[in-house]
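---------- Forwarded message ----------

FYI, see the Dehalogenase record below. Original note from H. follows.
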Amino acid sequence: MERDFSEVKLLGFDVFGTVVDWRSGVARAVAPFLEARDIAIPPAEFADRWRALYEPAMESVRSGKRPWVPLNELNLENLVAALAEVGLDVAAIPMEELEEINKAWERLDPWTDSIEGLTRLKSKYKLAPISNGDIGGMTNLARFAGLPWDMILGAEVTRTYKPQLATYIGSARKAGLEPGQVAMVAAHNYDLAAARRAGLKTVFITRTTEHGPGQKTDLQADSDWHVVGNDLVAVAQALGC
């Protein structure tokens, strides 16, 4: 595919898994809580259980079964459900404690290449998350992880969840741009497939341990995305940054 980025003004990023390591960060946050209650499940496995409820929760909004709910609230609902799955009496846990655990999604470490790659890309492009995260959560995560966004775009801005095309198109419009002036950067092929249908350029990076050592999805690009790189530094190099 021809890689003409001459019209691109903004790079929009998937965040969870692409820019930050959600699995390790969530496992770190829940470990003391699980240990204090003698829950034998490994923290990383609990992180996977919690994350497994992510897509079904968003689908209930995408399908119209329930009105718009920001991701922070969905994550809290999913936390309650995941804790119940492992046998905890969630009603006995103070809501303040649950809300503190839920902040794990705002305290995730960037991948080792992320800050250097983003900093280099920022020299040439505006940067923004086009994430399913809500504005408050994305802002708090950016401050924690040092992510140099120029603005926050994505789900709450458009009140839609990826991979709905409106999330990509609406984000571009909110930035004052046409879809073709935005490139979507993600480690997930489905995300880029939707972005391409919405008219955005596409950049794939590999994150082969996002879901742990046994990951079986998104191990490589499965289409002719405009740019493919092993990490964000490689993407910066490919784009002349």
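H. also flagged this: The first helix runs from residue 22 to 36.
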